[in-house]
UniProtKB/TrEMBL annotation:
<protein>
    <recommendedName>
        <fullName>Co-chaperone DjlA N-terminal domain-containing protein</fullName>
    </recommendedName>
</protein>
<keyword id="KW-0614">Plasmid</keyword>
<dbReference type="InterPro" id="IPR029024">
    <property type="entry name" value="TerB-like"/>
</dbReference>
Length: 179
């Protein structure tokens, strides 16, 4: 397994949640950028370089990149607090464009089933996401099936690299972020 820093795992989580519906909304990019800027986890972090690297990876190997992300989650040992932080990044990103697509819920369920934290603890921290935790008959084969379904049903469009135009007091984005 590749060793990954928690900050990069958080960014990959937010990025994958953003791309899971096949559309990148400027509000999602702005939110992820803001979360990175305000979190103490992201020190000496070049957001534009990192997000463009992820865009390049999803453009060149979309399904393989998502599978790599799922494998990374399976192999990474996280504390309960880290899992809650990861869930927070995922949920905020999914909600950023004010439209929750079924593909995003399916994607979140894929994330959730790779974490060790209980639904009870998740709902204690995030009481409004009950929809995301609705019970499915989850077995190893079911998880494999929904992962395969997600990867087979998702055609990843080609996203354009971002040009971020920021001054010290704002997080304005310029340039096209894709359709």
């Amino acid at each position: 397994m590749n060793i990954v820093n928690f900050d990069k795992l958080l960014l990959k989580t937010a990025f994958c949640c953003m791309a899971s519906d096949g559309h990148i909304d400027a509000r999602e990019i702005a939110l992820i950028q803001s979360m990175c800027q305000t979190s103490p986890l992201f020190k000496d972090f070049n957001f534009q370089d990192e997000i463009n690297l992820l865009l390049t990876k999803i453009n060149t190997s979309g399904k393989e990149f998502i599978q790599y992300y799922f494998d990374l989650l399976n192999e990474t040992e996280l504390t309960e607090q880290e899992e809650l932080t990861l869930i927070d990044f995922a949920i905020q990103t999914i909600n950023a464009d004010e439209q929750i697509e079924y593909s995003e819920i399916k994607f979140f369920k894929n994330i959730r089933h790779r974490l060790k934290i209980s639904d009870e603890h998740i709902l204690k921290a995030f009481p409004t996401i009950e929809l995301f935790l609705e019970e499915d008959i989850v077995t190893e084969s079911f998880l494999d099936k929904i992962t395969r379904q997600y990867l087979e049903s998702t055609d990843f469009p080609q996203f354009e690299l971002l040009t971020l135009d920021m001054d010290a007091n704002s997080s304005n984005i310029s340039g096209k972020v894709g359709e």
